[in-house]
Amino acid sequence: MNPTITNPPVATPFFFYLLAATMVIGGILVVTRKNAIHSAMALITTLLAQAGLYLMLYAPFVAGVQIILYAGGIMVLFLFVIMLINLERNMKEPQFNKQWLVGIVAATALGGLFIAVYTSASKGKALFPEGRMTYGESQNTQAIAGLLFDRSTGQYMFAFEIASLLLLVAIIGAVVMAKKRI
Amino acid sequence: MHELILYIQSYLDSDKTPGGAGNIFWVTVYILLVFGGLSVAVIAMNWLERKILAHMQVRLGPMRVGPHGLLQPIADAIKLLLKEDIIPAEADKIVFWIAPFIVVLAAFTVFVVVPFGPTHAITDMNIGILFMLGVSSLSVLGIVTAGWASNSHYPLIGALRSSAQMVSYEVAMGLAVVSVIMMTSLESGTGTLSMIGIVQSQLAQQQWFIFKFFPLGLIGFGIFAIAMVAETNRAPFDLPEAESELTAGFHTEYSGFRWSLFFLAEYSAMIAVSSIAVTLWLGGWLRPFPNWGGSTWDSIFSFFPGVTFLLFAAMCFYNTARMPKHPLFKIQTMGLAGFGAVLGLIGLVLFVPAVRDRVGDIFWFAAKVAGFMYLYIWYRGTFPRYRFDQLMKVGWKILLPMGLALLILTAVVGMRADLWAQLRGAGHP
Predict the structure, then answer these.
(1) Consecutive 10-residue averages of pLDDT for chain A (182 residues)
(2) Minimum mean pLDDT among A165-174, B291-300, B313-322, B346-355: which range?
(3) Closest chain B C-alpha to A1 CA, distance in angstroms
(4) What domains are there in chain A, each with its CATH number?
(5) 3-state SS, one letter per residue, for B154-194
(6) What's the rounded Cα separation, in Å, for the pair B192 and B406?
(7) No. of H helices and E strands in chain B?
């Protein structure tokens, strides 16, 4: 029995533009909102849309970790801290430092770089490798584990451990700075 | 039209979840079934909690609306929907409005991957358990924003407590989960994060993971069972809504429909974390004693769903006979008898072999989750509330080190499973 109605793939340009637009709008809101809580909520939207983009790249593990760590963990701490500070005083302070000239130069340079990358990629001499990921969706987690821990293919173990050691140092440093007496 | 029917039928032959088969019709049906069932379960939970708590405290509980208060949840729901919806004048309107929806969305979305059976799940994800933990951890954002947006002291303190509590217990919870994920890789060589895959590896190893490497699986389950109560803000860890200190905690300023959304989210989150515990440690949809193979045992266990419903029906009829004989109670008596008849009919339908084979897995999953729901009520009826420093101490100084030790021990024992088997064999000649 053949189903005659076929399902369209999920990773379509429509979803990409939807998620990208959500991210861009969220990012703009993060900067322009005066209320820090509103900014934080816009940032959460951006991070969730980013998780969606990871899913479109067939990297579900990265998407899951993105939701757990950024949207679930770090943003909760952000909100926690924002609630404890005095928002009324922040509302009265100027939000932008009026450095329009520098801002425009930096934005033009970055935008020009993006356009240059985009046009050169469409002309055939790609800056980034073209084509699909080599790992299918179902092996993403295993592939990451292989890159980290496997005896033959594990090349990122050392970098991974160094990064985690750095984070540990940061945690201990934060505790030492915050507590006068331990 | 014919094509549509073929499309609908084509799923019935496949042995995948509707999401896995990519069949949009059946995905919609499953979503409606799961969310409808979830809402009914929350309503039933509302009645059961009041009834069971009352019986634990030697009271009767709701008795007025319907026989034995059976219609009380419906009366409550109507009351909540008709109540005036108040938004405090100084509240942050938009955030106040969004917060309950964040909580409900997070609590409901996780059910997309809950496996009620090998094919009875909306979809199966490669990262199933990560998805469940991640999305359920988003509900704390709703709680925090609700507390902040109310612009009032009690909700703010409740929200701060809630975020501190949920972030701390998530760590211990995650460590316990990782130890199970390591167990899934034991015999097949590659582990899995998929909810269905975790249950299937328990089937392949012929053992629920709670009994794996005894007592390691049991300790992991214990850590999770404590952390999940804290994670859902229930007694004895219900400090975010401690009514003796904070009136109602983060939802003090909410009323009517918005408050009922928080209620709905709390109970569905309880069901969700219980489903995680059942899937990871208690064999998910597997019947008890999965190692007793053979069609005889299979058929014996397949009678359980029907028998359970017949028992419910018998309870209804017993209580019908005990109803007061006063004419005022005539309608209530008839209603209770009718309810019993419906339950009995469902029980009889469950004995039909074709039905029996298809609902057995759903029944066992639901029965295990129901056990956890009873435990939640039991905790609330028996344990006094923790103090906040005690709560933090349990989370960071007891559960977290235990979780880390468990993780390392599971890894070591898993690597040398042969030695472990010898040790166990020597212990039990």
Answers:
(1) 45 81 92 84 90 82 87 83 73 77 92 83 57 57 80 82 93 86 68
(2) B291-300
(3) 6
(4) 9-87 (1.20.120.1200), 138-182 (no CATH)
(5) HHHHHHHHHHHHHHHHHHHHHHHHHHHHHHHCCCCCCCCCC
(6) 19
(7) 19, 0
Two structure tokens written together for A178: 């915050």
> Which residues 385-414 of B have a C-beta within 8 angstroms of A?
none
In this prediction the ipTM stands at 0.78
pLDDT of residue B193: 83
pTM for the full predicted model: 0.85
Quote the CA–CA distance of B308 and B317 in Å, as a whole number: 14
Please compute Rg for chain A using Cα positions. Answer: 22
Q: Cα-flanking dihedrals φ and ψ of residue B150, to 5°?
A: -65, -20
Residues recorded for chain B: 429
Sign of the torsion angle spanned by Cα atoms B180, B184, B187, B191: negative
Q: What is the DSSP letter of B111?
A: G
- Over residues B279-286, the mean pLDDT reads 86
Task: Tell me the per-residue pLDDT of B236-246, one tens digit each, with 9 for 90 and over.
Answer: 888 777 777 77
Does the distance separating the beta carbons of A4 and B127 come in below 8 Å? no
Of B3, B149, B163, the CB nearest to A80: B163
Interchain CB contact of A76 with B (< 8 Å): yes
| Lookup: tokens for B226 | 């404590």
Flag if B127 and A141 touch (Cβ within 8 Å).
Answer: yes
- Report d(CA A67, CA A52) in Å as an integer: 10
Please choose, from the candidates B254, B250, B252, the residue with its C-alpha nearest in 3D space to the C-alpha of residue B85: B254
B166/A76 CB distance under 8 A: yes
Residue A160, pLDDT score: 87
Q: Is A79 on the interface with B (CB under 8 A)?
A: yes
Query: Which of B3, B22, B149 has the CB atom closest to A4's CB atom?
Result: B3
Q: Measured between CB atoms, does B10 come within 8 Å of chain A?
A: yes
Cis before B236? omega within 30: yes
Give yes or no for a cis peptide into B215 (omega within 30° of 0).
Answer: yes
Task: Give DSSP secondary structure letters for chain A.
Answer: ---SSPPPPS--HHHHHHHHHHHHHHHHHHHH-SSHHHHHHHHHHHHHHHHHHHHHTT-HHHHHHIIIIIIIIIHHHHHHHHHHS-HHHHHHS-S----HHHHHHHHHHHHHHHHHHHHHHHTT--SS--S--SS-GGGHHHHHHHHHH-TTT--SHHHHHHHHHHHHHHHHHHHHHH-S--
